[in-house]
Amino acid sequence: MHNFEFFNPTKVIFGKGTIAKLDRNVPADGKIMILYGGGSAQRNGTLDEVKKALPGRTLLEFGGIEPNPSFETLMQAVEIVRREQATFLIAVGGGSVIDGVKFVAAAAPYSGDPWGILQTYGKTVKEALPFGTVLTLPATGSEMNNGSVISRKEQHLKLFFQSKKVFPVFSILDPEKTYTLPKRQIANGIVDAFVHVMEQYLTIPVGARLQDRFAESILQTLIEVAPAAINSHDYSNRADFMWCATMALNGLIASGVPEDWATHMIGHEITALYGIDHARTLAIVMPSLLNERKDAKCKKLLQYAERVWKLTEGSDEQRMDAAVAKTREFFEELGLKTHLSDYDLGLEAVDAILANLQKSGMSKLGEDGKIDPVMCRRILEAAL
Ligand code: NZQ
Ligand code: ZN
């Protein structure tokens, strides 16, 4: 296993009725700004519950953070935070609202154009306002990590930044708050979490036995809970799903192992260009990428085949193919299509995605940096 530092200061407050614990975890003084999305938190009562849990506070509100949050919308929030001198932020929503709040937290005290935060991948972030989150959509892991993905809509750009300054102080995870999610978002969340684990697990072996088993256990749990998560409001099932999504991207399973974020980087460009949901882009790219990288990923693919999908019959080649097929089937069964043509995209899209990747400086992707534009074209053409 490689050397590593594991740092995660976010306090997780998990379970039924935990929004009531906001009072204990949010500062009693100062100005508290609650930020939310396009209205689901208002409609299902979560926003009211949050406000009720904060008696005696001076509260400000900012709604309208859209899926794939935009720089343009978030800068409006930054202006209010600066003008009103907000001192603590609370994100109520899914990954988009939480990512948006991370950006607002870092942008408010930033000197210079806050787009610089994205252009430097967060390296220029010196300070950020403290913030907590109330998660309503298990998927991204943003509630317990320090990453954020922000779009600049008119330029078709989707960039990420990371900074130790933007870990949430706390995150409230109440599985009951996911009951109002449409099936589409649950399916998206399962696939996003699944792919997060895959990108930290399915690389090359480095003797990290425990990390491997952590990753395999999350994959197996996601596969187990998926049908009931989509079709029922079973609390225990939702709780497991929620915890899987958080554990999939909080730094734990990445510790000491190589990572391959190529599927995400290519997927982000597909969303930036065509507005396809984040998880849906991953379902298009991942099976094709695994096929292309069978040689480089051979050992881990065989381990994945055996331990996660229980595939033990046939040659190495057959077991690897079967594991990729199982992965594709899993996504398709959840309703996530796995080809560009399912979205009426053809060869012209491949060119556009490649051009955008180049613009974002993504020309050496994968755990070994070997996914160059030529290989990337093969991956995308095979996903047509
Ligand atoms: O906006 P509202 O009205 O709240 O509706 C949202 C939105 O339309 C709705 N929703 C959320 N909770 C709900 C609900 N509807 C009913 N009941 C609830 N309880 O769901 C829709 C999608 O929400 P969004 O936050 O966009 O989804 P998700 O959590 O999948 O976040 C996706 C964003 O996160 C980024 C993605 O790129 C994308 O921009 N990611 C962030 C990561 C990170 N910070 O670590 C990693 C990920 O790989 C990902 O890139
Ligand atoms: Zn993701």
Describe the protein's topology:
Elements (H helix, E strand, L loop, with lengths): L10 E4 L7 H4 L5 E6 L3 H4 L2 H7 L5 E5 L8 H14 L3 E6 L1 H13 L7 H5 L11 E5 L11 E6 L4 E6 L7 E4 L9 H19 L7 H23 L3 H14 L13 H13 L3 H15 L5 H10 L8 H18 L13 H13 L13 H10 L2
Helix pairs in contact: 4-5, 7-8, 7-9, 7-11, 8-9, 10-11, 10-14, 11-13, 11-15, 12-13, 14-15
How is this structure best described in words?
The protein has 384 residues and is of the alpha/beta class. The protein folds into 2 domains: 168 residues, Rossmann fold; 200 residues, Dehydroquinate synthase-like, alpha domain (Up-down Bundle). It is 47% helix and 11% strand. The chain has 15 helices and 8 strands. It has a 6-stranded parallel β-sheet with strand order 1-8-5-4-2-3, with helices on both faces. It has a two-stranded antiparallel sheet with strand order 6-7. Strand 6 and strand 7 form a beta hairpin. The chain is globular, with a radius of gyration of 20 Å. The chain starts with 10 loop residues before the first strand and ends with a helix. The relative contact order is 0.11. 5,6-dihydroxy-NADP (NZQ) binds next to helix 2, helix 5, strand 6 and helix 7. The site of 5,6-dihydroxy-NADP has 34 residues, from helix 2, helix 5, strand 6 and helix 7.
